[in-house]
Amino acid sequence: MSFVPALLVVAALVALPVAAGPPAREDPPAAAAPAPAAGPAEDEDLVQFAADELVYDERANKVVATGNVLLRRRTEVLTADRVVWDRTEGTVLAEGSVRIGSERGEVLVADRMMLSDDLKDGAIENLLLVLQDGGRLAATRATRTDSVSQLERAIYSPCAVLDDAGCPQTPLWAVSAVRVRHDPVERRVHYRKARLEAYGVPILVLPAFSHPDSSLRNQSGLLGPDLRLTRELGVELAIPYYWSISTNQDLTTTAHIYSKELPLLELEYRHLTEAGPVRFALRGTYSEKITTDDDFEIVRTGEKGFRGMVEGNGRLDHATQDLRSSFALRLTNDPNFPGRYQFTFDNRFRSTYLLERQRDNLWFGARAWYFQYLAPDADSSLVPTALPLVDVMWRPDARPLGGRVMVEANALSLFRSNGQDMTRMLASARWDRSHVTSMGQRITLTGLLRSDFYHVRESDVADQAFYAGKDGVRGRFIPAAALDLEWPLIGPFARGVQTLVPRVMLVASTSGSNEGIPNEDSRALELEDGNLFALSRFPGYDRWEGGARVVYGVSWDWTRPGIALAADLGQSYRFVDEAQFVPEGTGLEDPLSDIVGRISLRAGRLASFTQRFRLDKDSLAVRRSDMDLSLGSGRTFASIGYLRYNRDVRLEDLPDTEEVRFGSQIALFRYWAVFGAMTIDLTSASEDPLTRNDGFQPIRSRAGFVYQDECFDFRFTWRRNYVNNLNAPEGNAFSFTLRLKNLGQ
User: Fold this and answer.
1) pTM reported for the whole predicted model
2) Of 561, 580, 604, which residue constitutes the final position of a domain?
3) Which domain does 440 fall in, by range?
């Protein structure tokens, strides 16, 4: 018989039914009638056919399909030019442009295949196995048993085998082997008698190894090594091993081997628990302690011992839906360890824990803070520990007098091993109401009532006398009121829309409320555009800006498609003098404040510019300048930053400083890019008498290049520290990173 209806009638009578699918061409030689419905037990064995022509040999019990053949069974799909299905033997012979695809995204391509009729077993000649991510396995011959492929004389590479013009090319790297096995269930590729090749040239012999086939990432095995060269440590080789403990937790063990120091071991554990993610890292070694001599040169003390650091962070949701906690941990038993082994150059470690509860209009948070100062001259006995720090914020639904109310409470216990200790409790209620007049002015009324309680101990040994309180129990009551008037004026300008907003604010509060109160959280006082219109310009709770004052300023912005320009300018006048609690040079020490402002420009995604400044009220000298400029996007970009504090503050923790920093990356060709960055300290002795710089002192720089394509990633980085100290030794460092896709990732 050579017609399709007869084939369908026969197929309906046998145990393994055949369903004819839609033909591959729009002009089929015959119309296919629907196959009989199969029962639930038969659905798994249902074979669906589609072809230009189907021939059923009733005597031989064979189905021959030719022309754009498509055969589907379960999750396997086969396409070919010609397929012969021997139903007696249970085999399928496919010839001509044969392809088998699976739901996992893998595709097997060959000239000729002899398969079982479930498409899982068989023999294949001249095959190509395309994996889920595009990696390829090619072989002269292969067998397939239960979807597991055994390849002979095979080669694997995730690199492109065709150039941009579509012509064949030798892959950048490949692994060839006498025998290769790919298990789609295990999702690994195993090699025997293999070798690594670069552009077809053997460079490494590999008797036996395996790697994931890219469809599964969390599999145990060696990761790609890193190579680095530094003056203090010599040659460093980092060899990481990744252990997939389960689908939601893993452990990475890295051995750091140095030519000038004893080895270092690093452990990183990650666990995605039902409550949330957690991570811990431990680094340690046995080494000799270092210090600095009178000339600030690094010397060894001869004292040996274990040195290391621990890090951790996590976020956990507790059984109660609105209760959760988070933590961050950074500790070291040697303040020189993090910088000496170049894990981090931070000179301050913070460890914290937060337990919080969030509801629609209520937030509760309880924190604990622990600090470690790693600077060589840091006195750890003066470093505070905060335990506990409690905050509560509640916004009731009620709207008294048409306004909104915010109730806040705070409690803090802060202690030192040798220094001022403090306990603080406070509560406040703030009321705000805004109204827009018929002429467009927005008027905001604010009222505040706050009560504080302090218990101060050992204030005579405070780290700074200016910040010290008075021993004993003290309290204060702070009322405040404010009237804020804004008048937005909007109109067209230069093919865009501009908005001009004059603003005036009147604030009144009690004065003299800082007497005898310690200052622990309000030290970093700096008048700027962000706090100009605040009820109190002091950060934190310990200092309150009392008395009466007027604040005035203007904001202007202009926008058009792709461009946005904005500017702010403002100043304040205080009617009551409270300069004894305001450090000189902060812009608020006199009744008339300095002038602060900000200019920002954004041009689409290609450029952004921000300039913040503070000008002396008398001479208009620049007391603070903070500029950031970024250009480009994607693989080519540049950024420049400039910061200058010219405040003449007579406090050690608020020194004047000036620095410039810049960084860039430039894409070269399709896969190459070069990058660089540098930080320069421009502070001179006239600005900071304690500095050892001459007005132009590079701090650190880095430069390098990167090559990255679809299968290969190589990076070279040069770093240099110009200032010699225990946490960042002076000298050069060179690092090399090589990654082959699917090998050691």
Assistant:
1) 0.79
2) 604
3) 420-604
